[in-house]
Amino acid sequence: MLEIVDPGLLATVQDTGRPDAAPLGVPRAGACDPLALAAANLLLGNDPASPAIELTGGLPALAAHQDLVLAVAGADPALRLGDTGPWIRPGTSVGVRAGTTIRATAAARAGIRTYVALPGGVAVPRLLGSASTCLPGGFGGLEGRPLRAGDVVSSGDDARRIGAGHAWPGPGPSSGVPGDPGATVIRVTDGPYRDALEDIAAALLATEWLVSAESDRIGLRLQPPAGGTTAAHGHATARDRSYDSFALAWGAIEVPPDGAPIVLLPDGPTVGGYPVPLVVTRADLPTLGQLRPGDHIRFHLVSLQDARADLLAAESALTQARTSLTVQRSVW
Amino acid sequence: MTEIRPFGESALQVTLAESDDPGTLSRVHALAHRVEDDRGTGALWGAPVPGMTTLLVPFDPLAWTGDEAEARLRRLATDLAPDMDPSPATLHRIPVHYGRADGPDLIEVSERLGLSSTQVVELHASMCYTVYILGFMPGFGYLGDLPEALRLPRRDTPRPGVPAGSVAIAGRHTAVYPSATPGGWHLLGRADTLPWDIHRDPPALLRPGDVVQFEPVG
Question: Looking at CA atoms only, how far is residue A312 from chain B in angstroms?
Answer without folding.
Answer: 6
